[in-house]
Design goal:
Elements (H helix, E strand, L loop, with lengths): L7 H8 L10 H4 L8 H14 L3 E8 L5 E7 L7 H6 L4 E6 L7 H14 L11 E5 L4 H5 L2 E2 H4 L8 E2 L20 H13 L3 E7 L9 E5 L7 H22 L3 E3 L2 E2 L11 E2 L8 H7 L3 E7 L5 H21 L1 H13 L4 E8 L3 E11 L12 E14 L2 E8 L3 E5 L3 H9 L5 E3 L3 E19 L2 E17 L5 E5 L5 H8 L26 E3 L8 E2 L2
Parallel strand pairs: 3-4, 3-7, 7-12, 8-9, 11-15
Antiparallel strand pairs: 1-2, 2-4, 5-6, 8-12, 10-11, 13-16, 14-15, 17-21, 17-22, 18-21, 18-23, 19-20
Helix pairs in contact: 1-11, 5-11, 9-11
Length: 530
């Protein structure tokens, strides 16, 4: 295997010096010494619209500091609405960059891909997919430029980058459950409306010293479905092979070494997190092909852009080739009705795989997966445990429906933003239900403006009578997002509505959780919540 460093010049020649015809990114114009500003991206998109009729620019959101977050629809022929996109029969691919604005190669690669897919050498790929692109998701963070060693310690260029957090100082890739940021709410609106089959999120790693120019992951939430299984078992391995064979770039599953000391590398390689607050996990839980791309922070900026460009290019090409299969697994995921939901997860047992590590020396800052170390340029392939997925630590039965009291309107608004169908009834009814008795409530340290909560307790059977005129919201789980609804509403969930403080006033040890479960579908007439 040739190491990625040996192919920098080849890659520059092959994919980073296109016939630009006057249109180029700031990164290209500065020989990859600088990254694009917000104004640069808007000018690039404006100029692209003058060159092609195959894109349409719209607004995803308005940032907290008043900046428009643009997204583009690209297709040949161009589609103008979600319905038209679905009727085309083509896979719909959503590509997102710059959610962490210090991680800049995705922003540059997304612009270059848009140009080359619409006016350049990649145009045939656009015949096979409908593409939605958000090239600069975190517009406010992008404009908070600072030295790379301050905003992205350990990242190998460029010298000035934005900050990872948003204008609200939120990590937007922790916001997919609570949907507090305007960017998150705008993205959820677009994703619910267009219902893409594929979601790609572009990032940069930090941490371990290894031999891969890019690492990747599928959705990691252990509530599996056919789309997640296809992504993990077939699509990503195929893209890895193509990256090596066509571009001579080595890639691997995203993660970090458990210990970077040379004598301790065999402890293993570990992925990040399975909770739904992360975008790719959230989309995987929704039954979609979800792919995380992580450029290697220790590679130079030009190489990271090249790897990201090639990776997304190969993903789009493969999705186009496998369009019928993609549609089949998405449909199968929508029809899946599991009888249980994983509400708490733990790393699954590892597999033994060869992993390329760079041997490093001590800098008196430890040897953990994220500790800075002195590089040597010496690489070894070591067989070690690879922890790349999660399994259930706690499951709960999925009921036919959850019953939510009328006073919890804020919670219902969140469910609807997530795309979950909610009904309401004000008829009187008597039903056998399950009630969760709270045994204990624990509160964690401050995080993202919250003190996240976990409860312990147990479900028990009860009979409930309601009077006419007392409204209840009803969330049937017999819907495509039924598993997501259960994951959010279960009180013991590691990342649900309890976690993010939506029910703090309702949680007392010895009291009953306000949301009920019904094993059989409610017989009372309901109407959809408008």
């Amino acid at each position: 295997m040739m190491h990625w460093r040996g192919w920098v010049g080849v890659l520059a020649e092959l994919c980073l010096v296109p016939s630009l015809g006057g249109q180029s990114t700031r990164a290209e114009r500065t020989a990859f010494r600088e990254t694009s500003s917000y104004a640069d991206v808007l000018m690039f998109l404006d100029s692209l619209q003058l060159l092609t009729k195959e894109i349409r620019v719209a607004t995803l959101a308005i940032s907290p500091e008043g900046r428009r977050v643009p997204y583009l629809v690209a297709a040949r022929p161009l589609v103008t609405s979600p319905g038209e996109a679905q009727r085309s029969g083509k896979p719909i691919v959503y590509l997102q960059a710059n959610i962490h604005a210090g991680e800049v190669e995705g922003k540059e690669a997304a612009q270059m891909l848009l140009r080359d897919l619409t006016t350049g050498q990649l145009r045939p790929l656009l015949d096979k997919v409908v593409l939605l692109v958000v090239p600069i998701y975190n517009t406010d963070g992008n404009e908070r430029l600072g030295p790379g060693e301050q905003n992205r310690p350990g990242q190998n260029g460029p010298a000035q980058v934005g900050q990872n957090t948003s204008g609200q100082l939120l990590n937007l890739n922790r916001d997919y459950v609570k949907l507090e940021a305007p960017e998150s709410r705008g993205a959820a609106t677009v994703l619910v409306a267009w219902d893409p089959d594929v979601f790609i999120d572009l990032h940069t790693t930090n941490g371990s010293y290894h031999g891969y120019v890019l690492t990747y992951a599928p959705g990691l939430n252990p509530n599996g479905n056919p789309a997640v299984e296809l992504t993990r078992d077939r699509l990503l391995p195929q893209v890895r092979r193509r990256m090596q064979e066509r571009h001579r770039q080595s890639t691997f599953w995203y993660g970090n070494f458990r210990n970077q000391h040379p004598d301790s590398l065999a402890q293993g390689w570990e992925t990040y997190d399975g909770r739904a607050r992360f975008g790719t996990n959230w989309m995987g839980l929704r039954g979609r092909v979800a792919i995380l791309s992580e450029g290697y922070s220790n590679a130079d900026f030009r190489s990271r852009v090249a790897a990201t460009y090639n990776f997304v290019r190969e993903v789009i090409a493969l999705i186009g080739e496998e369009s019928d299969l993609i549609k089949q697994v998405v449909d199968a995921s929508d029809r899946l009705r599991p009888d249980s939901v994983v509400v708490r997860s733990v790393l699954a047992p590892p597999s033994i795989q060869p992993v390329v590590a760079e041997i490093t020396r001590d800098l008196s800052q430890g040897a953990s997966g994220f500790a800075p170390r002195q590089r040597t340029g010496v690489y070894r392939t070591i067989r070690m445990p690879v922890y790349d997925r999660f399994t259930a630590r706690r499951k709960e039965a999925v009921p036919a429906a959850y019953l939510v009291p009328a006073r919890l309107k804020e919670l219902v608004e969140l469910l609807r933003r997530q795309g979950i169908a909610v009904g309401v009834t004000n008829r009187s009814w008597r039903a056998s239900v399950q009630v969760f008795t709270i045994d204990s409530v624990s509160v964690d340290a401050p995080f993202e403006g919250h003190r996240t909560v976990q409860v312990e307790g147990r479900w028990g059977n009860h009979t409930v009578d309601t009077a006419a005129g007392a409204a209840w919201y009803i969330v049937n789980t017999d819907q495509p997002l039924g598993t997501l609804a259960a994951y959010l509403l279960e009180p013991a969930s590691e990342d649900g509505v309890v976690t993010w403080n939506l029910l703090d006033r309702e949680l007392q040890p010895g009291s009953s959780f306000p949301i009920l479960r019904q094993r059989t579908r409610p017989a009372v007439p309901t109407v959809a919540v408008p």
